[in-house]
Amino acid sequence: MRKWSLLLLCSILALARYSAPSKAQSVFAKDGNVFITDGSGQTKKLTTLGRDSQPSLSPDQRRIAFVRSTPGKTVQTSLSDTEATELWLVDSHGEHVELLVSGKEDDDPKKSLADLSSPQFSPDGRRVYFRHLIQKAKEFLNGSVAP
Asked: Of the candidates 33, 34, 69, 127, which lies 20 to 30 Å from 51 by C-alpha distance?
């Protein structure tokens, strides 16, 4: 009898865990802000500056990487001035926002960062990969940063 009670209790706990409210299901940008929609269809605005785009949801669905525009902040390239942009991270509740990397100019083109774009998490969620424009040529390189 005790064995069956323990099995029943474990089954109930497992069922409760899997029927608990689900984590974030999708993220999107609208009017320069990042939004999250959970498994029940509820949508929440995570950012409010009106300068955010390209959100990417982490594999554990707890963090979102996104690009923030930087009006007036440019990096000089041989072709033209290019917007510096920034890569940010926010948790799925919108409570903890963190700057990961900011566009910057450098004499060494390999160290310059401009036009950051396309953030994507690694499969294990430990790194955020992104693209950026190098200074002396219109060529995109890939970069990564640990959140």
From this structure: 127
Tell me the C-alpha to C-alpha distance, in Å, between residue 112 and each of 79, 81, 130. 14, 13, 14
Strand (E) or helix (H) holding 52: strand 52-57
% of the chain residues with pLDDT over 90: 41
- In whole angstroms, give the CA distance from residue 36 to residue 15: 26
Q: pLDDT per residue over 117-141, tens digit each?
A: 899 999 999 999 988 766 444 444 4
**Neighbour-count burial of 53, counting CB atoms closer than 10 A to its CB (0-12 exposed, 13-18 middle, 19+ buried):** middle
**3-class SS at 17?**
helix
How far apart are alpha carbons 44 and 35 in whole angstroms? Answer: 6
DSSP state of 41: S
Residue 77, phi then psi, degrees to nearest 5: -115, 170
Task: Measure the CA dihedral 52/53/57/62, to 10°.
Answer: 10
* Tokens encoding 46: 């995570």
Helix (H, G, I), strand (E, B) or coil at 74: strand
Query: Contact at 8 Å (CB) between 48 and 34?
Result: no
